[in-house]
Amino acid sequence: MPASRPNTLAVPGAELYYETCGTGPLLLIIPGGPQDAGVFAELAAELSNQYKVLAFDPRGNSRTTTEAEPGTLDVDLVADDAAALISANGGGPAFVFGTSGGAQIGLSLAARHPDSVAALVAHEPPTIMLLPDPEPALAGERALHETYKRDGVEAAMGQFFAENGLDGDDSEGPPDFDMPPEAAETFARVSANFEYWLAHGMLPLSTYQPRLDVLRSGKPRITVAIGEQSAGQPIEAMGQALVARLGIAPTPFPGDHMGFETDAAGFAAALDRAFKETQHG
């Protein structure tokens, strides 16, 4: 696996931690929820022969530091951070992959900084507000937040995994004793981010409403990726609501919400194919 190169970038109010590997056109990865750059190590390695892959730790997560205690997550601010990373690494336009809440940030990036984005693959964004009736899903988000406040992080995360069909996913369970050291470190960091996400990130990411009036222009090109194993899950309905509003078709991707980890090679091939299709389509 090619070694990633760690770096930092000073932006207003924060110092962003990011990693790069590979050579080629820039491909920016935006993590979802409590994730950080380390979650994408295998995916980045698979793509490093064709792209310069850049993954970062968003504000509130892991190794990125902020001047003040991070408060409520601001989707547009993190999107501006992503644009600053692109500018500092060649200026773009960059290919962008965002997953889950990171896909919401990617949609903000595409709307706010269209000249920085060559194409965006938005993987399973939690676009609750685009559902025909968002209230049941919003009630579920509020109930999860209340579980966190009442019973703590462990109970809330267990509820989240179960409700989203992820309770059987080994990538979300405790690490095995033979887990490689880097993977164990990533697991520990991401687990430590759960509290910030539950307290300050989950609701802003879920209630963010993409700028559909801007995104419908087709520049940059947007692919909405939905996991083949996410059929019947709430996240599928949210992705379908987004594509209906954008007037495009969904693109099936390997696996479920964590397909980039469970099938890194297949997921990388699907990403590469999607980016090439946006160039020639």
TrEMBL record:
Pfam families: Abhydrolase_1. Coiled coil: none annotated. Residues 25-162 form the AB hydrolase-1 domain. It comes from the Bacteria. InterPro entries: AB_hydrolase, AB_hydrolase_1, AB_hydrolase_fold. This is Alpha/beta hydrolase. GO terms for biological process: glycerolipid catabolic process. Keywords: Hydrolase. GO terms for molecular function: triacylglycerol lipase activity.
